[in-house]
Structures are given as structure tokens and as C-alpha cells.
Amino acid sequence: MDPNPEILNLQETALSCFYSGEIFAFEDSLRALEVIQKKGVPEMIIMDHRNLTEDDSLFYRHLDVEKLATPLIVCSENAQEDKFMNFYPLVTAMIEKPLSVSSFTYLVKSISTLQTRQPTHVPIKIPTLLRLGMGHFDLYLKLSDKNFVKIIHKGEPFFDSDANKLFSKGIRELFIKYEDSKEFLKFLEKEMNVESGNTVEGISLAIENVEAIEQIAKFMNWSPSVLVSAQKSVSQAVKILSKNNNIISVLKRRLANPTSAYSRHVGLLTYMVCAFGSSIGWIGESGQVKLAMAALLHDVAVDEAIYENLREWDKRASHSGDKSPDTIRYRMHPFEASKLVKTLDAFSPDVDQIILQHHEVKDGSGFPRALDSVRIGHLPALFIIVEDLVDFIDDGENIETSITDFITWGREYYDSGHFKKIFTAFEEKLKG
């Protein structure tokens, strides 16, 4: 339920890409209530925060949510303020508007228990196609569940007259191929973000690792609350960084290509440090936000080309005898990144410390300051452990064996300082 038809359409389209059940979408909460009372208990309810406020609380007051035991996701422009979560303890999770498709999908999948599916075609409402104008995708008419016929080719215009002909025949939606759905959703999300004045449009490219996160969470036995907490912290970190035009412009430029090694690494690390911190139980929301900010900024001073041979550069930087200009520049990149952090209005020394120490090693063989485990803080230590885990995943053949290898290696390697305490807590949680 959402009074904004564009947001409603974005949500419905995103769900149609993986959800195997029926989807009902309403601008009017009373119509939603009628359908639930007629159809029965839904698996999940996704609603705008106004459906829970005093101005429009009919839905909430007439529906016995507690007896339904149904997960509730609430979308709000002020999701980080927690006022709705505190006032309505039955709310499962909050997600902030403007919506990021990847974040929305990630959150729903983490809470849903139903088997997902991959359809051959995804429905798109005709008003949305009209809004986009020139056709960016092939459009299909559904004849049956397995039979779709192409009626508009990519690049052809779609006018009001075309829509009216379809409406006259009772047709309210056309279909795109599933392979085009990800690109379509990005296009639609971008259009909505531009209209809403979203200043962080483009940063969602840093967190396109949804499938990897899902597999990792499953293997680690992370609960939905861990994933929800991570999503919330990442959202808050981006919101804080978006207040600085210099930082946001740097991130947009560095994360412009979601398929680059740089974007994949930063994206996975940003979610993982939050989820890992939440899973061990003693890194609160504030700490997770700091970890997410550090993950987004830790390598902003590193040339993307270096990511193609990152291990070799780490070895060169750790060897103090290498005085070549390129090696010195790489060795000093934590200092350069920390300078950017210090331009934030609400500067946090913890974020600065994480970035400055993220290449330090427990035995003092790291860089740029050759600190040992006694001098490495607990948040930097957690960050280093998670980045090691991400490196194992990047280098391995599959996620399960990579995590298993990391645990075996880490059990012997993380034997001192905060490293030992953090890894021990991680293993204890993993064993359940």
C-alpha cells in the first residue's frame, strides 16, 4: 500500500521479478483491508508509514495484526528516526524512501520464507510505459502463462493512442523479458530519484551484491534481524555522507560501474561489516554505521586499476624498502582517504581510525604505520577481519567453501588482541 502510484509500481515490479505468490497493490488502504478480509492472511504486508499514522490508521485499527503474525515492512522518508518502529512494536522492518530497488529486494527476501522463482516475463503497468516515452525494451502481450507475443520492438515509441487501444480491450499491462527487468528497474528508480530530488542517486550501485549477501547469510545462519539491521545501517551511512557534496561526487564517480572489481568489493564489504557486526551482538547501530561509512570511503584514494592485482600491491606496500613513487602513493592511501572523512560536518574519529588502520596486520607487518594487535582498535580489527573474509570469497570458487576455508584459517590466525575476541564471538554465534 502506498498513496504514490509510482512507488507502488516500482515495488510491485520488483516483487514480480522473484516472488511466486499473488501480489495486490493499492493506493487506498481500505481496499487493501477488503482484499485481506476476503482472501485471507497474506504472507507479508508492505505499507507506507501514513497507513500507520493517526491521519490514516483505519487499516491498522480494523486489522488484527497481532493475530495475523504477518511481517510488516513500513516505507518512510524518515525511516532512520525509529519513531514508527518504537510506536508500533509489531513492525518488522523499516526502509527509507526514495526506494533503492536492490535494498528493497534484499529486505523482502531476507524476511520472506516462500520459495523464489525466476519468471520468463515481468508485467509492467501501461501508465508506466507511457511515462517512459520512447521504448527502451521489447514489449510483449501475454496470451497465456507460457505464450507471449512481441508487439513493440525496442526503440519504437509508445503513444497514448497505443495505450488507448489496449485499454479498450481490457489490457492494463504489457510484459518485458526477465533478462531486461534489472535494467528496467534501474531506469525506473533513476527517474523517480531525479523527481524526488534524491542527492544520493547512484550510490546504490555500491550495494549490488544482493545474491552474494543472501548466500552468505544463509551459510552463516544469520537471522532476518541481522540483515535488516545491516540494511538500516548502510542506509544511514549513505544518508550522512550525502550531506557532503565533495564526498558524494567522489563516490558516484568511483562506483559508477557496478561490475568493476572496485564496486563489487566495496559493495560487498559495506554490507558485510554491518551484518558481521550485528551478528556477533556487541556492535550496536552506531558502530555499524561507522563501519559502513569506512567501507564506502576506505579506498577512495586507490586507482581502480590496482584492484586487478590488489594482493601484489599490498605486498609491495608492506615492504618498507620499496620506495617507488607508485608504492609510496598506495602505501599512503589510508591517510588520503582519512582526509576526506575529516571534511564531514559530523566528523567521527572512529571512522578515521578504521580507515587509517584497515591495512594494519596483527604482527606489525602492515601499513602505513606498522601497528601490532595491541595498538589496533576493536572497530578496525573487525573491519580487517571482514575484509579478509571478503578477499576469501573473491578468491574462492564458491561462497560456502570460501567461508569454510576462512574459518579454518582464522581460527589459527586471529590469536591476539581484539582480533581474537571478535573471531571467538563470531565462531560462537556461528555454532549457535
Summary?
The chain is built from 21 helices and seven strands.
Features:
two-stranded antiparallel sheet, three-stranded parallel β-sheet, mainly alpha, 432 residues, 2 domains, Hypothetical protein af1432
Description:
The chain has 432 residues and is mostly helical. Helices cover 55% and strands 8% of the residues. The chain has a 3-stranded parallel β-sheet. Helix 19 packs across helix 21 (417-431). The protein is globular and about 75 Å long. The model is unreliable at 194-202 (pLDDT under 50).
User: Which class of the largest domain in CATH terms?
Assistant: Mainly Alpha
The CATH architecture name of the largest domain reads Orthogonal Bundle
Number of helices: 21
For the record, what is the CATH homologous superfamily label of the largest domain?
Hypothetical protein af1432
Percent range for β-strand residues: 5-15%
In which order are the strands of the major sheet placed? 1-2-3
What is the topology?
Elements: H1 5-16, H2 29-39, E1 45-48, H3 58-62, H4 65-68, E2 72-76, H5 83-87, E3 93-96, H6 101-111, E4 121-125, H7 126-132, E5 139-144, E6 147-152, H8 160-168, E7 173-177, H9 178-196, H10 210-220, H11 224-241, H12 245-254, H13 261-280, H14 285-297, H15 310-318, H16 325-331, H17 333-341, H18 349-357, H19 378-395, H20 399-413, H21 417-431
Parallel strand pairs: 1-2, 2-3
Antiparallel strand pairs: 4-7, 5-6
Helix pairs in contact: 1-9, 6-11, 11-13, 11-14, 13-14, 13-19, 14-18, 15-16, 17-18, 18-19, 19-20, 19-21
